[in-house]
Amino acid sequence: MFLLDTHALVWAIDSPELLSPRASAVIQSEELMVSTVSFWELLLKKDRRGAPVKNPGAWWQKHVTLAGVQVLPIQPYHLRHLETLPPIHKDPFDRVLICQSLHHQLGLVTNDEQIRRYGDAVTAVW
User: Fold this and answer.
1) Which end of the chain is more exposed for a tag (fewer CB within 10 A), N or C?
2) Does the pTM of the predicted model rise above 0.70?
3) CA 27 to chain centre
4) 53-86, pLDDT tens digit by residue?
């Protein structure tokens, strides 16, 4: 089972040509989850120039909720991992995704080089 980083989720829906062949294969053939933190991230970035999604509420409803994608909520036990997570990555959204993937032993589909710097601790796929 794999957890999608926010950009991997958006690209899978809106720009699949941006996915690597390996990421595309995982998305097409594996059981996937997305995190509530991705919805939060999209909502906070919606008014920025170059926002990945301009109307995240409607987009999430259509491509995640109605599509039946499994959503992983943020739980306090996920956040406990933040205490021991090395400070390699500073982005709070990505840090929560890392914690969720660690807690549930999920592969993380991401093109984020900083996440891949966690080495074997995080199973990052791209």
Assistant:
1) N
2) yes
3) 12
4) 999 999 999 999 999 999 999 999 999 888 888 8
CB proximity list for 79: less than 8 A, separation 6 or greater:
96, 99
The answer to whether 107 and 2 are in contact (CB under 8 A) is: yes
Cα 45 to Cα 48: distance, rounded to the nearest angstrom:
6
11, 53, 64, 66, 125 from 113: Cα distances, Å: 17, 22, 26, 31, 11
Tokens 């933040």 correspond to what residue? Answer: 82
- Domain housing 88: 2-125
> What are the structure tokens assigned to 51, written together?
């926002």
90 pLDDT more than 90 = no
Q: Decide if 102 contacts 75 (C-beta within 8 A).
A: no
Q: Helices 6-14 and 21-29 sit at what angle, rounded to 10 degrees?
A: 80
Residue 53: give its domain's CATH number: 3.40.50.1010
